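Hey,
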Amino acid sequence: MIKIKIPQLLEKNNMNATDLFRKGNVAYRTALRLSKGEGSRISFDVLENLCKLFDVSVDEILEYVPDKKS
């Protein structure tokens, strides 16, 4: 599973979904989903905008978490 770490970045930077929409050049619905750590895909353009906005690398936005097997 891929974990989206945007909620932590927003909190760290005292931002919310509206800030992400306005400052990150991200569609509002996308900003809402990302702010909740939700989503099933992300475009390279959005990923690049997020890297620029938060001044971070991709691995600080996305994290691979192996699925737990029963």
